[in-house]
Specification:
The protein is an alpha/beta fold and 161 residues long. The protein has a single domain, classed as Glutaredoxin, CATH 3.40.30. The chain is built from four helices and nine strands. The protein has helices spanning 42-57, 72-82, 96-101, 127-140; strands at residues 11-14, 20-23, 32-37, 63-68, 88-90, 108-112, 118-123, 125-126, 158-159. The strands form three sheets. A five-stranded mixed beta sheet has the order 5-4-3-6-7. A hairpin with a 5-residue loop joins β1 (11-14) and β2 (20-23). The longest helix is centred in the N-terminal third of the chain and has 16 residues, at 42-57. The mean pLDDT is 97.
Length: 161
């Protein structure tokens, strides 16, 4: 798995919307969060609403891409069911980007700094890590940090992927 400080490998993947997404070209001078998912992953189901909250709390100044380890039809249906309003990129069947980034599990999140270096990583579901990503994103976009994963929301603090 890529570690903090590593340069994020470049890639191009097609999204469920038919567009090609390229890293680093499409960073647009801001940070990016890469969210590796699989539609059959229960821990992904738990994590998606929190990642969606990140987009709601910080609507601009950064990129959020889900990288689905599933075929197009399944990934598109999953994104629709989960309310994912950000690009969902298809990494199946070759798993080219998954092989480059080597996520430890699904879900795995890689927060990339504007210079394309991995700043923070987490895998599985961890409220502390999601709140740390929120704090770091707030710093990048000059916003007040928001707690997106409250301890008392009825979900566990941690669940492995």
């Amino acid at each position: 798995m890529l570690e903090a400080g590593s340069q994020a490998p470049p890639f191009t993947l097609a999204g469920t919307d038919g567009r090609d997404y390229r890293l680093p070209r499409d960073l647009r001078g801001g940070p990016a969060l890469l969210f590796f998912i699989k539609t059959t992953c229960g821990t992904c189901d738990l994590t998606v609403p929190y990642v969606n909250r990140l987009r709601d709390c910080y609507p601009s100044g950064w990129e959020l891409w889900a990288i689905a380890q599933d075929p197009l039809a399944e990934a598109a249906a999953y994104a629709d069911r989960q309310g994912m309003t950000y690009p969902v990129l298809i990494d199946a069947p070759a798993y080219t980007v998954s092989r480059l980034y080597d996520p430890a599990a699904t879900p795995t999140l890689f927060l990339l700094a504007p210079d394309g270096r991995v700043q923070y990583t987490t895998h599985g579901f961890a409220k502390d890590d999601l709140n740390e990503i929120s704090r770091r994103l707030a710093g990048y976009v000059s916003a007040q940090p928001r707690e997106i994963a409250p301890a008392d929301d009825g979900n566990p603090r941690f669940k492995p992927g």
